[in-house]
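This section describes the prediction task in plain terms. A model, or a person checking by hand, is given the sequence of a single protein chain and must write out its three-dimensional structure as a string of C-alpha cells. No templates, partner chains or ligands are provided. The sample shown here is typical of the held-out split.
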Amino acid sequence: MLTGAVSKPRQKFVRQHQPSPAALEQASALGSRNGTGFKDPACADNKSLPLHRWVPWIAGFSAPFVDQVLDSYLGQAAKSDRPLVLDPFAGVGTTLLQAALRGFDYAGFDLNPYAVLAARVKLRAARMNPGALERHIAGLRRAAARWRTAPARSALAPVHFRSRVPFFSPTVERQVLHALGFIRSLPNRDIADLFRVAFGAVMVSFSNYTYEPSLGSRPGAGKPLIADADVAETLLAKLHQMHADVLWLREKSAGARALGHGEVHHEDFLTGHTRLPAGSVDLVVTSPPYLNNYHYVRNTRPQLYWLSLVHGAAQQRELEARNFGKFWQTVRGAAPLSLTFRHAGLRRFLSKLRGVRSSAGPYGGPGWANYAVAYFNDCDRFLGALSRLLRTDGVAVIVIGNSIIQGLEIRTEQILGDLARQHGLAVEGIHCIRDKRVGASITQSGVRRGKTSRSVLAEYSVVLRKR
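The expected answer:
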C-alpha cells in the first residue's frame, strides 16, 4: 500500500499518462462465454489497457479475450486453490498477466528474449517501488539535457547489427547511445529492465524503419528518413505511462486477493514443457505462431541487438532455427520433409501444393510444402505436450488462423482438432471468432488483391479438454 503525500508535479504527470476511465473499466470488466465461443480476440484493445500498453506486439490476443476464457473455465470457484494457467507461446505476457491479476499461478514459455524481458517486467511491476522509479525518470530528464552535445559511448552500438539504410540518423544515434548508457548505469535491476523495455517499445518510432506490419525501411514504405528526433521526450512519455500503470497496479492490488505467482521461461516449449509436472495445468490460453511466415525474430531484430539480447548472426540463426514451425527461409531448400504423423487430408494437400509452380523449386510449391510440413510436425509435438500437462478435465483454448499458401487454402484449425484427438484430447468446439483478417505474408494468397484464391482468412478458437 502506498504511503505519504503525492507531490504536485507527480500528480500532474500521473494525470497525463494514467489510463483513460474507459480503459480502466475495460481492464476490470470480465467477459462471458456464449454458445458459439468467444468474442473477437484482436490485440488492438491492449494499446489502451494498463501494463498491456507498454509494448506494441503484432500478434496475440487482447486482455479482455483472456478474461472471457478465465471467467468461463476458472471463474471465481477454481478447480484448485491456486489453479495453474499456461501459455506455451507467451509473447509479451497477456495471458500470464491476466492470470496473475486473478490470483492464479502461471507458467509461460517463449524463445524471443525481448518478449520474455517484456513479460517478466510486467509481471514484476507490482513489486516495483514507484518512488524510486519516479526519481530515476527525473534523473533521465536531467541527464538528457546534454545528450545532443556531449560525446557518446560508441561502444554501446551493436557491432553485428546490419540494416539496409542506417537504422538511426547520426543525430538520433548520439542520443540513443546516451540513453543506453544511462540505462546501464541504473543500480536497480528491476528498474533498469523496465527502462530497457520502454526503450525497446519506442525505438523504432525515431528510427529509419517502420512496421507495415513487418519491419522494413521507411523509404521502402514511401516514408522519409528521420533526420532528427527528441529521443528523451519520446522515452520519457513512455516511462511516465509505465509509472502511472505501476501506481494503478499497486492501488488495484492493495487489500485484494494476492497476485498469482509463476515464471516466464526463456525456452522452447516443445522441449521445455518437461519443467512442469504431468497433469499440473488447469487451463491453457495461447495462440501459436500462424502458418503465415510472419518472422518474429527478424521483426524484433532492432530490440534484440540494441538491448544486447543477441550479439551476432549465429545467435540470431539459432533463434530462427528453433522457432515453432520454423520459417520458410530456414527449410525451403531442404530435401522434401515428411509428416511424423498420419493425416490423409493433409497429405493430399501437401501433394497438391508441391505441384504448384514446381519449376520454381524452393520459391514455389516444393519450398512452401516443406514449410507446411515443419509447421504441422511442431503442432503435433505441441499437442502431445498439452496432453501430458493438462490435468483431468483441464481445458486448452487455442487461437489460430487458417492459411492460404500459393493460392491454396488450408484449414489449420481443423487439422489442430484432428491432431488433438490423436493425442487423446476431446474437441469441445472450433469457433470462428473473427471472420475476416488480412495478411499477405505468404505469396499469392490473393486476400488483398482478390486474385488466385477466393478464400478468406479468419480466426478460430479451438477448445480442447482432457478427459
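For orientation: Residues 1-14, 27-36, 445-450 have pLDDT under 50 and may be disordered.
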